[in-house]
Structures are given as C-alpha cells and as structure tokens.
Amino acid sequence: MPAINIGINETDRKKIADGLSHLLADSFTLYLITHNFHWNVTGPHFNSLHAMFMDQYTEQWNALDIIAERIRALGFPAPGSYKEFIELSSIKEVTSVPTANEMVKILVEAQEATARTARSLFDVVDAANDQPTADLLTQRLDVHEKTAWMLRSILA
C-alpha cells in the first residue's frame, strides 16, 4: 500500500486515530445503551421516550460509520469488537433495566461523557492542522450537547 501523504505526519495521525478510537467506543456504548433503553422503557412516558430513544440511537448508529471511516482515512484500523469498545470507552455498560427516569439520567451522563471525549481531541487535531477531524468533532459535540440538554429538560 502506498504511504499516506495528506499533510499530517504519522505520529500525529496515530494520536488522532487513537483519540477517535475512544470516541468510537464511547459512541458505540452510548448507542447500545440507548437502544437497550428503547426496548425496555416502561411507564407513563413510554410512547414519548420509546420514540425519542429510537431517534437518538438511529442518529448514533449513523455516526459510528463516520468516526470509523475517519480513523481508516488516517491510516489505522478502527476498533470493532465488544472487547475493544469496553477497554476504550469511558462509559460503563448498563446491565440492568433501570426506571424510565434513571434511563434518562444515565443517558444524560453518557451523552456528556461522549461530548467530553470528543472535546478532548481538539488540541492534537488543531496542532496537526486536521480540519476534517475538527469538523467531525464539532458536529458530534453539537449533537451530544443538544441531546444532553433535551434529556436534562425531561428531568426538570
């Protein structure tokens, strides 16, 4: 395979890909939790939460491919196993079926954790002059911060 010559040295590309791997792991864990809650939510707000969780996990699912493909464009393999995601994610698995209110609280925390992971990459991305990754991060931050706000509003 020909060497990659996109104007970002290999060391910086590796740092960015490693950071994006953490973001991918957080994003996948968030996706899985949200889909689980969609399946298992109960209570008086079932219809609205069930539909909202579906919208959220659908958006998250589509984002996974974008993040993984950016890692690949930088020249590194994207993580893709549960084992890798568990090791890389800052979000803990949810193995129980919490109440609807607890589900919303957990999702707020997971959305915010994913936003923090995305935000933590800007220093290395900016130093490497990597605008495509910066754009991806900005778009993901917008989604996670807005979704966290909407979920927090349910708890008010």
UniProtKB/TrEMBL annotation:
Residues 18-155 form the Ferritin/DPS domain. InterPro entries: DPS_DNA-bd (IPR002177), DPS_DNA-bd_CS (IPR023188), Ferritin-like (IPR012347), Ferritin-like_SF (IPR009078), Ferritin_DPS_dom (IPR008331). Belongs to the Dps family. This is Dps family protein.
